[in-house]
């Protein structure tokens, strides 16, 4: 009889252990599901923020508004500021794979003239600015006007005139050693028949817009020699960070080639090399290979 009671007790203990094990497995499974749900929610939230950043970048670039790091944190991330790097990388992936673009950080705006650089006031190293622009990732063969046409807002003609004008001014500045005096700028504007107007806009308004959008920098310095007499100032025009990114030396050289057209030859390439400080591509026989020449105009 005692043996029977002992067996029944063991069976009772075994039955009580099984429910506990089942509950333990169920609780563990629930915990794993909760963790998976939390991870999925975090990924989903980051993905939504990345899409929001893409929309914000496209909207800013349409109006050529600087895409600032602080603006991204304020208008996109909100209280998720610590996720900046992750969201930024996800947005970059979407921009590259879907839109054929990427966010490029601009250098700090140029503040020094050539004379100041020679005096050692400029170190020459790239400084992060926390300001970005959208730049195309398309191969050069797809950057033709037929594929990347000027924006229709406000109109194709107005946008094309503006692009052509700032590309020309940037090219002139770069061809002049990276800076241009006010007097020389006015002389070039007169030669371009743009001393008063650019298309339907006043030249002064266009130049101010180019400054605001970062295509050029207008540096004003006091003239020590004449300051005491008439208070005159020296004005120097430099290429801005957006101008360097969108046009740069490659675009400037491409514009020169486009202007010369079929008359372009090896002598022109030598002049371009000397003027802009770039290397000309050559074929196996040592002749200039024009097929490798950069396209004219902006890079976007």
From TrEMBL:
GO terms for cellular component: nucleus. Residues 182-213 form a coiled coil. Keywords: Coiled coil. Pfam families: MAGE. Residues 1-40, 279-300 are annotated as: Disordered. Gene3D superfamilies: MAGE homology domain, winged helix WH1 motif, MAGE homology domain, winged helix WH2 motif. Residues 1-14, 29-39 have a biased composition (Acidic residues). The keyword Coiled coil applies. The keyword Coiled coil applies. GO terms for biological process: DNA repair. InterPro entries: MAGE, MAGE_WH1, MAGE_WH2, MHD_dom. Residues 53-252 form the MAGE domain. This is MAGE family protein. It comes from Colletotrichum higginsianum (strain IMI 349063) (Crucifer anthracnose fungus).
């Amino acid at each position: 009889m005692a043996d029977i009671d002992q067996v029944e007790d063991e069976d009772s203990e075994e039955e009580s252990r099984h429910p506990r094990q089942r509950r333990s497995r169920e609780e563990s499974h629930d915990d794993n599901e909760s963790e998976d749900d939390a991870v999925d929610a975090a990924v989903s939230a980051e993905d939504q923020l990345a899409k929001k950043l893409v929309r914000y970048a496209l909207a800013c670039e349409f109006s050529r508004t600087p895409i600032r790091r602080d603006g991204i944190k304020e208008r996109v991330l909100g209280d998720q500021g610590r996720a900046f790097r992750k969201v930024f990388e996800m947005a970059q992936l979407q921009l590259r794979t879907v839109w054929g673009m990427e966010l490029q950080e601009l250098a700090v705006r140029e503040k020094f003239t050539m004379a100041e650089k020679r005096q050692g006031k400029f170190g020459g190293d790239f400084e992060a600015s926390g300001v970005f622009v959208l730049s195309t990732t398309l191969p050069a063969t797809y950057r033709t006007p037929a594929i990347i046409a000027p924006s229709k807002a406000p109109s194709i003609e107005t946008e094309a005139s503006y692009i052509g004008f700032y590309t020309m001014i940037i090219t002139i500045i770069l061809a002049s050693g990276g800076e241009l005096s006010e007097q020389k700028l006015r002389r070039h504007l007169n030669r371009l028949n743009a001393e008063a107007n650019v298309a339907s806009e006043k030249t002064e308004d266009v130049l101010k817009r180019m400054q605001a959008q970062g295509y050029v920098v207008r540096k004003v310095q006091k003239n020590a020699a004449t300051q005491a007499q008439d208070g005159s100032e020296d004005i120097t025009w430099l290429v801005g960070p957006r101008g360097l990114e969108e046009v740069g030396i490659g675009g400037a050289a491409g514009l020169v080639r486009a202007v010369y057209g079929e008359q372009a030859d090896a002598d022109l390439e030598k002049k371009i090399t000397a003027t802009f400080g770039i290397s000309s591509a050559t074929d196996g026989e040592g002749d200039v290979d024009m097929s490798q020449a950069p396209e004219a105009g902006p890079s976007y």
